[in-house]
Amino acid sequence: MLYNNFKDKKLSKLGLGGMRFPVKDGQLDQDIAEKIIEKSMELGINYYDTAYSYQGGISELILSKTLAKYPRESYNFATKFPGHQIAETYYPAPIFENQLKKTKLEYFDFYLLHNIYENCYDVYMDPKWNILEYFLKQKEKGLIKHFGISTHARSDLFTTILKEFGEHIEFCQIELNYLDWTMQDAKYKCELLKEYNIPIWVMEPLKGAQLLKLNDKSKEIMAQKHPDWSPAEWAFRYLMNMSDVKMILSGMASVSIVEENCGIFSEEKPFDKEDNKILMTVAESLKDNVPCTKCGYCRRVCPQELNIPLLMEQYNEMRYAPSNTVAMLMESIPVEKRPEACLKCGMCKRECPQFIDIPTCLEDLTKKLSTIPSWAEICKQRLIDAKKMQG
Ligand code: SF4
Ligand code: SF4
Q1: Quick one: which ligand is closest to 184's CA?
Q2: CATH architecture of the domain with residue range 3-286
Q3: Is the CB of 37 under 6 A from ligand 1?
């Protein structure tokens, strides 16, 4: 494992993100999650990122429980305050005290204000809640060793956020990958962070696995330059090449992904201007996709309890090429959870860090689905064809 120096610490360049532990029967699969964490420790990862809200609060619990088996100084535990979530109150003390109690940790190595963005900036700035002052106090007391923020804000607000918080934070977690370099204006954000001398923590390095699903043309140009690099390796090496990036977080959903990613992070390899150019070409080909990262923020507020990330994934499939498998999947979903059940209330749109116009996408998906035969019709036709072939 390669490491970066950060203040008094030596941090693994790859950190384990705790937002995407596998789920079984609707619950976080604790056995697999434990194995993922243990394998990460074995392969040298020493940074573990979670949040109060991740996976219904179970992510904080499983991470702290599993890491408790190791010496305290062998890992860094990072968690966050959920000021971005809709809540009745935003007093930080009860949440923070609950996090310490729940995780049985005496202190957090890293602590962040979670996703300061357009819809919650006022919450974070409201003197009634006293959020920033409270956490700076906890840092003084030694309960937080390093303090930072995460944000999906657009560039204008990002500039304001740095004016307000810049002098208090030691690191800033942003969405950064070769597609968002231009799509989420990450270039501007990186340059501004450099001016403030604030190191970059990366989230969504693979854009919620979107950078793994490339078209044949993209795969071909990438393979001509580096035949042995996977799409993940390309995306990671792009970031590893940036000197201001000190932490790359990846939500690894299986032991084999941990092994594969740790393999990439075990050695430096040159990444030249031509590599960069290739990725910018690949990025152009991806810009037609709806940029859903499957973060699930929209699901929490949908009154119809639609599985929006799944519907966005199917929407991308349909935009790429109308497919029978989309029809099949849709028909396996109860009628009241299909895209046409959307009430167009817009709640989800306000929560989406990717600024996706979800209701419009769902309306378009409904329209597109109406143009292809239903799965029952497809099956019936296949039966007729099979009988014809048998004579
Ligand atoms: S607009 Fe549709 S998908 Fe979005 S929250 Fe409302 S009902 Fe759910
Ligand atoms: S639609 Fe937006 S909020 Fe919902 S899962 Fe995708 S990126 Fe997240």
Answers
A1: 2
A2: Alpha-Beta Barrel (3.20)
A3: no
